[in-house]
Amino acid sequence: MSRNKLMKNALYSVHKLYKDCNSLSFATQANYEATTKSFIRELHSQGFPISNIKDLKPKNIDMLLHSWEKKGLSSGTIKNKLSVLRYVCKGVGKESIIAACNSNLSIQPRQYVPIVNKAIFDIPIEKIKNKHVQLSMRLQQEFGLRKEESLKFIASQADKGSYIELQASWTKGGIRRIIPVQSETQRTLLDEIKAFVPDGASLIPQEKSYIQHRNYYDYCARDIGLKNLHGLRHAYAQSKYEQLTNIETNGRGWNCPHQGGLSYKKMTPEQKLIDRKVRFIISNELGHSRVEITKIYCG
């Protein structure tokens, strides 16, 4: 069989693997499929012309890892690629061919270095004329949702009274999560959404596909001078940090570092314990599995 045919077959096997998958959100699935196809191309270019993703072997994993290290990719990038590889190996029934822990692969720990504050606390929401988009943006403000989550949000399913429950099919990584409803503005927004759309309907208009409406959302964001609105999640995390530290200390809380609060080094032992607890809650509400990532949001 020619190399071109082998490549074509291998890429099709990747497409089929993800076509049959329903555990990932649309965006994550597209990203994983593209990344997996890049593995196939890299394997072929290095002399490993497999014809099916199910043919992966330990030596293929070793070759990819060595190639990434040789290219000088960051540990964070390599870890992201390994996450996709583990998903693939699990999908084809070969979990045993890749180490379950990155430390067994000599990958350096990911470094979460505090960066500039990217929080967006206020947007000219009144300039957004499309009601569906406006409500999605307000969801991002009030609950710290990702863009995809705010578009696919089905209020009649998610609203549980004292909390909202995000379905796995809406979220990055396909992980269901719960966010408490703790303010009047949150409750008002949920009620407004349920009054605007029919039961069982998301904030994607019925006449549009997800991709079409996502592109329109992006257009609306650019129209108010913003490339994206991920900063709303940063703002949510920072406000949540102050709120939770106040709860933990009976009103004696503090701001996060990005808002001028104490750095971890300057905290008392008691404050450090509270800081860790608060960051754990925030990371869960944002849909992240690693507490360390809150350094990006809160400093």
The assigned structural class equals: mainly alpha
Overall geometric form: globular
Order of strands, main sheet, comes to: 1-2
Instruction: Give, in order, the helices and strands.
Output: HHHHHHHEEHHHHH
Number of strands: 2
Mean pLDDT: 90
Number of helices: 12
Describe, in plain words, how this protein is organized in 3D:
- With 299 residues, the protein is mostly helical.
- The chain folds into three domains: 3-105; 129-223, no CATH class; 232-298, no CATH class.
- The chain has twelve helices and two strands.
- The protein has helices spanning 3-19, 26-45, 58-70, 75-91, 131-143, 147-152, 155-158, 184-196, 210-223, 231-248, 269-286, 294-298, and strands at residues 163-166, 177-180.
- The chain has a two-stranded antiparallel sheet.
- It is globular and about 65 Å long.
- The chain starts with a helix and ends with a helix.
Summarize the structure.
The protein is mainly α.
Structural key phrases:
single chain, 299 residues, mainly alpha, two-stranded antiparallel ribbon, 2 strands, 3% strand
List the helices and strands and how they pair.
Layout: H1 3-19, H2 26-45, H3 58-70, H4 75-91, H5 131-143, H6 147-152, H7 155-158, E1 163-166, E2 177-180, H8 184-196, H9 210-223, H10 231-248, H11 269-286, H12 294-298
Antiparallel strand pairs: 1-2
